[in-house]
Amino acid sequence: MTDVFEVRRWDGAGRLGSLDVPRAGVTVETPALMPVVNPHLRTVSPARMEELGAQVLITNGYILYGSEDYREQALEEGLHSLYDFSGAIVTDSGSFQLSVYGDEEVDIDTEEILQFQYDIGSDIGTPVDIPTPPDAARERAEAELATTQERLELASELDLGEMLLNAPIQGSTYTDLRERAGADARATGADVFPVGAVVPLLNDYRYAEAVEVSLAAKRGLGPAAPVHLFGAGHPMMFALAAAAGCDLFDSAAYALYARDDRYLTVRSTEHLADLEYLPCSCPVCTEHGAEGLQALDDIERERRLAEHNLHVSFAEMRRVRQAIRAGDLLELVEARARSHPTVLDGYRALLDHADDLERTDDASKESFFHLSTESAHRPEVLRHHDRLAALPVEGDEVLLSEGGTNDSYDETWRVVPPFGPFPRALSETYPLTAEVPERTDRAAQAAAARGVTALVEANPDVAFTLAHWEWPDEVLATLPEAVTVTALGPDEDVDAETEVE
Question: Is 3.20.20.105 the CATH classification of the domain at 5-351?
């Protein structure tokens, strides 16, 4: 594998990265959106996309290969001239046609299509893999994955000059196959690794499963590999997919939705006819308004809607990059998760792997906002619990208090849900400076109780007393028997505590 990708900052599994594309002579800042263009999908010109923020495009090499009108032009002029685009251009191979129409519709092999992609000036080429759909029989998924791997190994042996090589990760919805496919693809020495055949999951809003297969692929690939999530084009899920460690996204959604008079927001997709007010301040929306857009002729309305959809998509991608830079990507995901139940499902699936996220998460961020019950499961909380065993405990009797200190104890530690206990001297250190609502939820209290348990188990010779305000009995029941629990009203001093039976 060539050394073309560098991670500059981590936030969970999300990262700001730089993908060097030597043939184009450019460096793509990731996460990045790649709009789909081809000779039959030119609603917004590639040159205009570049003005809107596109660093990289993706086009279908197989369509160009089979086109009487454009094949010779692409070979003669090259893709960059054909599309009037100075950034990087990625070519797909016909695998989508294979998945829709079957083998009889794809009459080209990996070596031939990669040579064609090279000849037309592609910057990142793709072999003909087999996109096994979700829920396929395992036997089929294994057989097609084996064929895909054979093709990847063949592709890796070709002389492609400076053209980078995609190595798609298949395996249907079997996470063990996805993980194995990731490891095998990485071993070929390819450059970029698309997670394939997820479009049916995304179209059906099965975001939790899309997260699961992406994380599985990444376990096989390792943390350093650049990952492309094929077909991810709705801005509502950019933050979620980036938090799962995906770096590149592509879709024709901006144009396909516009063709059907559909208007993208980061929360949903709306039909233009249903809108009286436009919830967007992009130039298209401010110039026309809902009534003005509706009054345009069909061709112009489609073009302007597609441009709006790109504005929204690129703006969200910039928002994702800024969130990673600021260290609050998961807070953006939490906000997006409240806009659609299936995004929430995806976020919960992501947090089921908080231990994986913690391995690359930046441990020196500036803030932590507790925004929902899911906040209690974030990797920062897990990391604090893991570190409790190493924190020194002074004295034989220690009070764990949500309130003040008490001279009857050798030491008083603070307890703040969802983190749990920590020495008072650490109160001004991240993440214990977290902004937490006064009305803490059950999940935050349960997480704090897990922190108490970790501290107690690491210090079996210390007598711990927990003074709390309103923790429910079912949370208190999870604590070790060695902990003495006392009730403390919010306006009471610790001296007034009384033991709970």
Answer: yes
